[in-house]
Write a structure and sequence with these properties.
Helix content is 78%, strand content 0%. With 416 residues, the chain is mainly α. The chain has one domain: Growth Hormone, Chain: A, CATH 1.20.1250. Helix 2 crosses helix 4, helix 7 crosses helix 8 and helix 11 packs parallel to helix 14 (320-344).
Length: 416
């Protein structure tokens, strides 16, 4: 554990691990978001608009599977091997998805995006790795630092679809093939950085507050008991609902725009605004959660998501500016809940309990988001994009009720 490392070196080593996770997040998100944007369009080209949500669904299922499997591995052999294995899966995914585009094969495309999700699952667990390294009063801000790294990919990822497509065309390849070539290179670079700099094992650098064993004479809590703790329950419901609503609306926005005459440049700009909201303001979200407590910031996040859904539902088909605003608010509402909920999920748990509940929690979150991704295409095909936005607002009612109920009973408050 951390006490086996010279105390004077701990701050430097912890900073190095946090900024390594920042770099992995930046490269991984750039690849992942670009691949999802292109994957939606590629699936629609191959099998029609109803298939447009499938790449997002498979990537989300890959993320869910990775969260459970990699946390199981991390608990036994360490954070570093689990993270490296997950990122390696994403490198393979970029190559398989590229083959799917070149061969116009939907199954290959979906396998590739599922493996890309495996890398995303590893990267998502990175925020918890960072949280283990700092005392409770700095956890939300530290989680936000890692999430903030995704800003680079958030802004550049969607906008790289068009230039990558032009580069691919210059070599006689389909335009969307360029995005998956880029995905492969970015994820490979993320793996190399993690392999070199994610040392020593992050468990050995954990802050003492994360190492405290359960009280003497008390049996270790079962996973079910941990999941039903008020703070854990609120965190999981918030994270799941925010992810579902965000994915539900975000997934079909590119097709909604292209179906109404907008080009790839407009798609890229709108999604850049969305992903900017998702990541760029993370430091603010982290400081707010540390200052005012996660429950309050979760409430603000849910309200922001609801406003985004209403604006998206009411925007006219050619309303690029309104959709840009809606997608930005959708991203920032998600960010507020994601940072505050993730911080709440680390509170009051030992290191082993955290790893167990974080993996299971992320698996639950991303599985429900996969259902939303598949459903989004069906809802738009059977009803409309407006109905999609209104459904998103309705899905925010349950987490709001759970949050208010736990606040009123005094079971949750400002995290320790």
């Amino acid at each position: 554990m951390a006490r086996s490392i010279e105390a004077s070196r701990l701050p430097m080593l912890r900073r190095r691990v946090i900024w390594t996770l920042f770099a992995v997040s930046a490269l991984g998100t750039t690849a992942y978001i670009a691949a999802l944007t292109a994957g939606t369009l590629a699936a629609a080209e191959i099998a029609g608009n109803a298939a447009g949500g499938l790449p997002n669904a498979t990537s989300t299922l890959g993320t869910a599977a990775a969260a459970g499997l990699l946390s199981f591995l991390m608990l036994r052999v360490g954070r570093r091997p689990g993270l490296l294995l997950g990122i390696m899966g994403g490198t393979l995914g970029g190559a398989v998805a590229l083959a799917g585009v070149l061969l116009a094969s939907l199954p290959l495309l979906l396998v590739g995006t599922a493996l890309a999700g495996f890398a995303n699952g590893a990267g998502q667990l990175g925020r918890y790795i960072a949280a283990d390294l700092v005392p409770p009063e700095r956890r939300a801000a530290t989680i936000a630092t890692v999430v903030w790294g995704s800003t680079i990919g958030a802004v550049s990822g969607p906008n790289l679809v068009a230039p990558a497509g032009a580069l691919a065309e210059s070599f006689g390849l389909p335009p969307l093939a360029g995005t998956f070539m880029f995905t492969f290179c970015c994820v490979a670079a993320a793996w190399a950085i993690a392999f070199i700099f994610l040392r020593p094992e992050p468990y050995d650098l954990a802050d003492p507050s994360a190492l405290a064993p359960p009280a003497t004479g008390v049996e270790p809590s079962s996973l079910a008991a941990i999941l039903w703790r008020p703070s854990v329950l609120v965190a999981l419901v918030t994270l799941a609902a925010g992810q579902v609503v965000m994915v539900l609306i975000m997934t079909m926005t590119p097709l909604h725009l292209t179906d109404h005459g907008h080009g790839l440049e407009t798609v890229g700009f709108v999604l850049s605004a969305h992903t900017f909201g998702m990541f760029a303001l993370s430091p603010i979200s982290g400081r707010l959660a540390d200052r005012f407590g996660s429950p309050r910031i979760i409430g603000v996040g849910l309200a922001t998501l609801a406003l985004a859904g209403l604006i998206a539902a009411g925007a006219p088909p050619d309303g690029g500016p309104l959709l840009t605003l809606a997608l930005f608010l959708l991203g920032y509402g998600w960010n507020l809940g994601f940072v505050a909920g993730s911080s709440m999920l680390t509170a009051g748990l030992t290191l082993g309990e955290r790893t167990r509940v974080q993996g299971v929690g992320d698996a639950m979150i991303w599985t429900s988001a996969a259902v939303a991704s598949v459903s989004s295409g069906l809802i738009v095909a059977g009803a409309s994009y407006t109905a999609l936005g209104l459904l998103g607002v309705g899905l925010l009612v349950p987490p709001a009720v759970v949050l208010l109920a736990q606040r009123r009973t005094g079971h949750i408050g400002r995290p320790a």
